[in-house]
């Protein structure tokens, strides 16, 4: 795009100035500086290619365009491959964001070590020293090819690209995009202009040279990717690492040009690093062989995965003037609402201190309403001191009028419960399907909270 250039010139002596001023500093005359429009010049931004590299060449027919299938390569990290829908896409640029201490660097250190056994790989850190990275590799006992693994402490994008080109690197990690700077933009590291220009330069190089790259990104106070929204549009895949209570980490894809975004990976942070959890239900079930009051098992849905988890409730006599409500991993507002439904429709008196807990340290989103029946059952079990068999799974949403509302993906949830040995399953009536009868478990469709109480008692 062409733009006009403006200059300010003194009519008396011809001295030019970057902006208008009242007196000429050269001839000391007043009000002699006027604005002069020079010829149009070509904007430097017009030569900048698109995010995927060079642009131009005119329009083409669909039949004239060469088709390239995206190649996938497995990383060896099971849950990461699941989130990326079959592995890393060659030549893709990916972002991983998350809270400090979530395990981004730990996960990518393992990844770059694995990739170094296949291709030349580079880990560029702008936030820690190279000795710190080496200590992490030794502490986690990561298996890498030292001849193919290059480490670099650099903040200049131009220097990083030169090193990638010199070593013919095919996989790279930049830690982090908020810490590097480029000569193509003004501002300090982490500023919107620097983040955008740095990401654009790195993406252009990766697309033109078939380099696969991971960019570490910071998050703001709202737990969203820090920086301009343009950053998300530039990259191919945006993943976010959530830190739950305890050692559990959840990796979710919020954008993926080469696969589905409805995927979730479960990791456990240990002394040996981030370990994939192939069967998350084993973590979220207590594994206790003794049955006790106040414990129920339900099935939630994380992305496209069904997870079985155990909900525990404990009720004790109130010693103070007002009963306490304490919950770990659950939304307090939903607990209060379910307590109100019980008091209204079942005349249950709850003058007790109530404590709720999710086994395994997982946090349940407020939008996850399928656990309503399990929460109510656990509360009634603790209040009335009766035991819900550990072979029973309960799922369903409870409305304010006491009706049981249907949940999404009812059949896959029931199949998941049956695969783990559950013999009796309570589901909303509208979720019932004939295909559930041949699975080998007793299916109890429930319409109202009153039906549930009659069945469990």
From TrEMBL:
Q: Name one GO molecular function term.
A: metal ion binding
Q: Which InterPro entries match?
A: DNA_repair_RadA, P-loop_NTPase, RecA_ATP-bd, Ribosomal_Su5_D2-typ_SF, Ribsml_uS5_D2-typ_fold_subgr, Rubredoxin_2
Regions annotated as coiled coil: none
Note whether Transmembrane occurs among the keywords.
Answer: no
Q: Name the UniProt key words of this record, in alphabetical order.
A: ATP-binding, DNA damage, DNA repair, DNA-binding, Hydrolase, Metal-binding, Nucleotide-binding, Stress response, Zinc
User: Which PROSITE patterns does the record cross-reference, listed alphabetically?
Assistant: RECA_2
Looking at the keywords, is tRNA processing present?
Answer: no
Q: Which GO terms describe its biological process?
A: recombinational repair
Kindly list the GO CC terms recorded for this protein. cytosol
Q: Which Pfam families match?
A: AAA_25 (PF13481), ChlI (PF13541), Zn_ribbon_LapB (PF18073)
Q: Which SUPFAM superfamilies match?
A: P-loop containing nucleoside triphosphate hydrolases, Ribosomal protein S5 domain 2-like
Question: What is the protein named?
Answer: DNA repair protein RadA
Q: Give the species this sequence originates from.
A: Shewanella hanedai (Alteromonas hanedai)
